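We modelled the chain as a single entity of 184 amino acids. Its sequence is:
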Amino acid sequence: MIELRDLQDDDSDRLFAWRREPEVDRWMSGPHPESAALHALWFEKLRADTDRCGWIIGSAGEPVGFLLLAGLSGRHRRAEWGWYIGEAKARGRGAGRAAQALGLDRAFLEHDVDKVWSEVLADNEVALRAQAAAGFRREGYLRRHVVKNGRAHDIVVLGVLKEEWAQRRDAARRDLVKSGLIAA
């Protein structure tokens, strides 16, 4: 079963290690944390920031990834979203699909935002397909928008509205329950 749980003190080291994994880092628009000390500062700021909320994605009680919402207190009632599966053994097994549904429920039902949006590297076909399957629509394309490892990358801007998720939610959750990925 996939679940989202609140961050705990001992998650800082785990997130630092995951974020430095080449398979995670290659799809992130920003650089990986330079040091454990800088990462620890980021982690403490994240946990204290009412504008952002992060969760550990768990699979059968084991941490496998991270999901973040940012911009929760803005007047526009939208949140930026990002997630990754840090444990290689959990990739491609439905953890991301389930985490997206759980995360969208948190965003729309608990944080009452009207829109969740994200930026995805244009060549990250897996993330683009995963987010499209959760109901995200392409809203923009930003050419040579970020530089990573000395190379410019295009970004696809995606978004899903509260009412769009509401229309997909029941069917998506039924499918995830049937697949054994989330509890009923």
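As a brief sanity check on the tokenised model: The beta strands are 2-6, 52-59, 62-70, 78-85, 115-121, 137-148, 151-161. The helical segments are 11-19, 22-25, 36-48, 95-110, 125-133, 162-178.
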